[in-house]
Design goal:
53% helix; 2 domains; three-stranded antiparallel beta sheet; 195 residues; two-stranded antiparallel sheet; alpha+beta; 7 helices
Length: 195
């Protein structure tokens, strides 16, 4: 979705108020908009609808009722022409591939930082399914090693879970451990750099 003149004006005003770069403010506003749309898409994919969907969207995005209803309505998609199983399978595979890519990056970071004289924590990239997410999380080396014992599991920031394709298996203060649904087990296991 292309930014409107209202979006540019809002970004310019916010940048002036916060003494920040208007281009950066505009990019962060766009990222927030994409994240909110992602939340709605994932909740719908997971089967939420009606008042329950509205309540979850309001709680997870911080939007008021009218804005949440408008976002839900804007994300409504026409019925796919192909069988839903096939469409979901392709989507699930792409989301899993995004997480696999971040896991590869983190394996390189962990192997480079794995020195007994270094701290017991690693700064890693969030392994969520959003290909544009480059946020960092901190995890203890021992916890990371435990996580990597199961190739179906990934470390993501709180709020970056995708319930349509994965389940939360552990919650920590600064990260969440998710496990991919059975449909993508073969894919993520085959891509495991440690197997």
């Amino acid at each position: 979705m292309e930014p409107t003149s209202d979006d540019h004006e809002l970004a310019a005003w916010l940048a002036a108020q916060t003494h920040a770069d208007s281009g950066q403010v505009e990019a962060e506003l766009e990222l927030g908009e994409r994240r909110r749309a992602f939340v709605v898409d994932e909740l719908v994919e997971a089967g939420f609808a009606g008042p329950e969907l509205l309540d979850l969207v309001m709680r997870l995005t911080g939007m008021d009722g009218a804005a949440a209803r408008a976002l839900i309505a804007s994300r409504a998609e026409p019925v796919p022409s192909e069988p839903p199983e096939t469409a979901a399978s392709k989507r699930d595979e792409q989301l899993a591939e995004n997480e696999v890519m971040f896991r590869r990056v983190n394996e390189r970071i962990a192997s480079a930082d794995h020195d007994p004289s270094t701290p017991h924590e690693l700064e890693l990239v969030c392994e969520c399914s959003d290909r544009d997410c480059l946020k960092m999380l901190t995890i203890e080396v021992a916890e990371y090693e435990w996580l990597r014992l199961n190739p179906r599991r990934f470390a993501v920031l709180p709020g970056h879970e995708a319930p349509a394709v994965e389940d939360v298996v552990e919650r920590h203060e600064h990260f969440v451990i998710v496990e991919k649904h059975v449909e993508t087990h073969d894919q993520v296991e085959a891509a495991d750099p440690r197997s």
